[in-house]
């Protein structure tokens, strides 16, 4: 199996895991159990991976981290908005 395919599978799984959390937060407006600091650190992490992916033109990294940034940004926005 090509390393690129492994990268895309990892990208898909790594992105999908955040979607249910983002959906639940917006649907319930309940963010009491979420750590803002932890989510901000993860947002910084995936943002840096996105920049790195762009710098080295690695499409699995770019796609995965673009989606992850959007999902985690949704969670952070909800945490700031709903407390």
From TrEMBL:
The keyword Repeat is assigned to this record: no
Ranges annotated as spanning the membrane: 6-27, 34-55, 61-80
Keyword Nucleotide-binding belongs to the record: no
UniProt KW keywords: Membrane, Transmembrane, Transmembrane helix
A Pfam family reported for this protein in Swiss-Prot or TrEMBL: MtN3_slv
InterPro entries given in the database record: SemiSWEET, SWEET_rpt
NCBIfam families: SemiSWEET_2 (NF037968)
Name of the molecule in the record: SemiSWEET transporter
Protein's organism: Aliisedimentitalea scapharcae
